[in-house]
């Protein structure tokens, strides 16, 4: 999963790490900072000899500062004499990154993110966040560069992915029943399979479930979902092929109310967001039986296309969240990283295989961990 993206992030870590290490090598001698110390402080307390390590006094920098010869240690009186203009020396072995140091690597990162199908505004947001974290940061020479860079990347990716995180389980638990959830999206992305996985999951959680066979448009769609419903052991409400999907969904809601069913999962016909008639039909379904939640389903492997579709569906029928299917086959991770940021609605679940149990509740922390494992 996400192997190409993992490689690209790892390359970025190495590229920045190399920059930092090269800068560290350039600093053959430690950086010496001079700090003015008020005379009173020095008079009150004699200068600690340890403040001025002997080996540093032979460096070129040290020769420009008040000279303290290690071989002829000054007496306490002499130290007091120096006090008027004395400076304490602070020795540090650190690299401070400036923008110029990492601009090439940041550009490489942006290109890598775009190549991974991450939407451009999301890629820019990640690069900006990484830059803000790294530029000006003090990096101890010899400490673990990779860890520092990885943490900056982790935080940036986590932040773009965790927009309006929403817990569906908690919602269903607390909501008045029945809870009506409508699934929308284009053909063939795994909507029907996802509804079946969700029905199985809810049934395992001891909720009663009814499925509405709202895809009356595609030949065979009703039979397909009927097979799933039978296997899982949940009730299906269906009409004839070509019937009005709004009527099917309405019947399913009435059935749920009459039989105290907890959750209604409504399938809808796959449609292109550009198909005006089908989008109008979808709006009708949502008008006739107002759903509590509308979930957009698309396949992670579609990358940017999935994100654009989510945006367009969201404009027509405001969604509450997304489910990305086929993440098990996705090497780029772009849709998963971009979709919540672009729509402002969270990812709720990831489809991770063809089995009924291959549905994973989305957790941005888990996702980020996968990228760096
Ligand atoms: N590898 C993998 N395959 C999946 C996943 N989810 C669904 N599929 C497969 O994708 C194919 C299409 O799934 P469907 O559920 O029929 O798609 P749909 O969106 O309902 O399609 P329409 O009925 O045409 O609207 C099927 O072969 C599924 O088994 C997933 O998470 N991983």
From TrEMBL:
It is found in: Cell membrane; Cytoplasm. Its main location: membrane. It is a peripheral membrane protein. One of its GO terms (molecular function) is GTPase activity. It catalyses: GTP + H2O = GDP + phosphate + H(+). GO terms for cellular component: cytoplasm; plasma membrane. Residues 346-359 form the SRP54-type proteins GTP-binding domain. Coiled coil: none annotated. GO terms for biological process: cell division; SRP-dependent cotranslational protein targeting to membrane. Part of the signal recognition particle protein translocation system, which is composed of SRP and FtsY. Belongs to the GTP-binding SRP family. FtsY subfamily. This is Signal recognition particle receptor FtsY. It comes from Methanococcoides methylutens. The gene is ftsY.
């Amino acid at each position: 999963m996400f192997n190409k993206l993992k490689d690209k992030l790892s390359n970025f870590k190495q590229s920045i790490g190399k920059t930092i290490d090269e800068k560290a090598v350039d600093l053959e001698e430690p950086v010496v900072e001079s700090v003015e110390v008020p005379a009173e402080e020095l008079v009150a307390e004699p200068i600690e000899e340890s403040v001025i390590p002997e080996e540093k006094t032979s460096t070129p920098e040290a020769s420009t500062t008040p000279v303290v010869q290690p071989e002829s240690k000054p007496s306490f009186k002499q130290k007091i004499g120096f006090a008027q203009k004395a400076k304490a020396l602070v020795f540090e072995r650190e690299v401070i990154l400036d923008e110029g140091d990492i601009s090439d690597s940041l550009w490489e990162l942006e290109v890598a993110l775009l190549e991974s199908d991450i939407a451009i505004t999301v890629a820019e947001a990640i690069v900006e966040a990484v830059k803000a974290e790294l530029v000006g940061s003090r990096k101890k020479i010899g400490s673990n560069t990779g860890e520092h860079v990885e943490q900056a990347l982790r935080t940036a990716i986590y932040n773009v992915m965790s927009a309006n995180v929403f817990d569906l389980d908690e919602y269903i638990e607390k909501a008045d029943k029945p809870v009506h959830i409508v699934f929308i999206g284009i053909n063939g992305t795994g909507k029907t399979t996802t509804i079946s996985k969700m029905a199985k999951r809810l049934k395992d959680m001891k909720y009663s479930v009814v499925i509405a066979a709202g895809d009356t448009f595609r030949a065979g769609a009703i039979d397909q979902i009927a097979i799933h419903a039978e296997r899982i052991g949940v009730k299906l409400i269906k009409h004839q092929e070509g019937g009005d999907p709004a009527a099917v969904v309405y019947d399913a809601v009435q059935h749920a109310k009459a039989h105290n069913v907890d959750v209604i999962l409504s399938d809808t016909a796959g449609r292109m967001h550009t198909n005006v008639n089908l989008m109008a039909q979808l709006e009708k379904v949502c008008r006739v039986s107002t759903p509590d939640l509308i979930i957009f389903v698309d396949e992670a492997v579609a990358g940017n296309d999935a994100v654009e579709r989510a945006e367009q569906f969201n404009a027509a029928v405001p969604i509450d969240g997304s489910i990305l299917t086929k993440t098990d086959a996705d090497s780029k991770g772009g849709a998963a990283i971009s979709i919540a940021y672009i729509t402002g609605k969270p990812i709720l679940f990831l489809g991770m295989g063809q089995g009924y149990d291959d549905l994973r509740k989305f957790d941005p922390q888990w996702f980020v961990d996968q990228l760096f494992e």
